[in-house]
Structures are given as C-alpha cells and as structure tokens.
Amino acid sequence: MGHEEPLLLPPPPSATTINPSPLTVSVPSPSASASAAPPTSLAPGFRFHPTDEELVIYYLKRKVSGKPFRFDAIAEVDIYKSEPWDLFDKSRLKTRDQEWYFFSALDKKYGNGGRMNRATLQGYWKATGNDRPVKHDLRTVGLKKTLVFHSGRAPDGKRTKWVMHEYRLVEEELERERAGAGPSQPQEAFVLCRVFHKNNIGPPNGQRYAPFVEEE
C-alpha cells in the first residue's frame, strides 16, 4: 500500500473570533441593579412591621434622645398639617403595603402630647377609646392612642376610614432618659405615628399585605 498523506484539518478559529464581550454587556452590573430602585425600597418579602414595644423603646426613644438608628426607616413630618392621603409620598420606606410610619415633633406648648391640636386643612384627627399602655420588662414605657380622621370641622366632621396609632413616651421614661443621657439630651418631644386606611388593611378585612406584583 502506498504512503497515505496525513489529513490536514483547517486551523482552529482564532481566539479573537470567540468574543465573550456580548455576554458581559448583557448582564447588568451589581451597581446598575442597585441604582434601579430607591435605596430604602424593600425587596418582596421584606416588611417593616415592628411591635408596639419596638416602636416605643427603640425607635421613639432613640429619636427623642438623638441617638442613631441601624436602619433609618421612619421619616419626620409635621403629620398634623398633612392630609392622611398625602402621607404616602412622604414615607421613607417605599412599599405597597398600606401602612406608613412617621415621627412628628410636638409643639412645646403641648408638653408630651396629652393635649394637641390635630386639625389639618381639610379635617381633624379625633381620639377614640382610652390610651393603651405599651410595656417593656413589665413597666409601662409608652402610651398608644387610636385616632380616626374626620373630614370637615368639629363637631360636624364626617368620619373616614383613615386611622392613626399615635405612640408617645410616658413622663417617667423621659425622666429616666434625662438622668442617664447628660445635659444635652433628650432634644425634642416627638410622637411616633402609624397611619393606615381601614378598607385596605387590618380588621375587618385583614388585608395587611399588598398583593404581590411581579416585577419586569
């Protein structure tokens, strides 16, 4: 048999012809995906639902004392000069759940919030029921007041479905904080307010969470 010529294959394509760059540009960078949403927006499944005790003994007490938060979740607004339906845009947490939290500074003439002017331009907040104690380690650290928004002017205002839970520290807790914080603390008097619309959240419908909407 004669000598067979070796089979010559075409040279492999140059490495430069396999360009991975289209793959890299098609995947968004971590910085790009992070900037696509506001930094305080919560991913699906993450919610800000502190207990009454946590609201008073951590968030409100730190606000009054001028101490920092690990997560700055609650905006400060003049809540009694805002209509309840305008508060969504003022919330620091951008969530579709129908409840919002705010700090509101107290006018010094109202002391610790026992008596306050809660009238807005289009209505007023009216207290309902008795203040309920908020306890920590078996001692009362705060009071929780429930208010309902009425449109118009008292005593002829029309009751709405807007509800507020207003939290304030009791005087004994403020004195305890003053004794341990030094001459410059606490700074101002604040209340912490949780606002929601009764048709959208809580009893009787129990719609605490907003329906999930898949993101594009």
Can you offer a commentary on this structure?
- The protein is an alpha+beta fold.
- It has a domain at 47-197: NAC domain (Metal Binding Protein, Guanine Nucleotide Exchange Factor, Chain A, Beta Complex).
- Helices cover 17% and strands 26% of the residues.
- The protein has four helices and six strands, in the order αααβββββαβ.
- The protein has helices at residues 21-26, 30-35, 52-65, 171-181, and strands spanning 75-76, 99-105, 123-136, 139-151, 158-169, 190-197.
- The protein has a six-stranded mixed sheet with strand order 1-2-6-5-4-3.
- The chain starts with 20 loop residues before the first helix and ends in a 19-residue tail after the last strand.
Output the helix-strand order.
HHHEEEEEHE
- Any idea what the radius of gyration is? 28 Å
Question: What is the 3D form?
Answer: globular
- How much is the average pLDDT? 76
Reported for the largest beta sheet, the result is: 6 strands, mixed
What is the second-level CATH architecture of the domain at 47-197? Answer: Beta Complex
Beta-strand percentage range: 25-35%
Query: Would you state the CATH class of the domain at 47-197?
Result: Mainly Beta
Number of helices: 4
Helix/strand class = alpha+beta
The CATH homologous superfamily of the domain at 47-197: NAC domain
Say what the CATH topology of the domain at 47-197 is.
Metal Binding Protein, Guanine Nucleotide Exchange Factor, Chain A
